[in-house]
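Thread: "does anyone have the structure for this chain?"

Original post by V.I.:
We have the sequence but no experimental structure in hand. Need at least a predicted one for the grant figures.
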Amino acid sequence: MSINTGIKAESRSEIVEGLSKLLADTYTLYLKTHNYHWNVTGPMFNTLHAMFEEHYTELAEAVDVIAERIRALGEFAPGSYHAFSKLTDVKEETEVPEATQMIQNLLDSHETVIRHARKVVTSDAIEGDEVSADILTQRMDFHEKTAWMLRSLLDQ
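Reply from O.Q.:
Generated one for you, tokens below.
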């Protein structure tokens, strides 16, 4: 069935491409954060364990919002590790680093997501799609605040 919501088909396709990448980035970051929640050790254990849980819970909710927006735009959302691995720029974690390295890795990952979301929200295709722009803006707000908090943990 055709979609007639005032967003051109070519713009929808470009937006979906950007949102699919954001979905893959978000899911990969969710997995990394959850992994760190389970495996963090050291003197910052309580603080980081609780903070990582807050972050992965928020990321899990965001995954659903992003995927449902892709569906509302008339496309299927990617939903496999294979699809996500081809789309994401967030580096998958294969080791269990020490706590300070976990913080740095998460900071780098959040900044990666911010850069991608900013690129999509400022694209010509997004003009006229206030709903997707709002989702992207909300994602940038979360990731920028989280990056600030992680950066603050690394300041000596």
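V.I.: this helps a lot. The first helix runs from residue 9 to 39.
O.Q.: and The chain has five helices and no strands.
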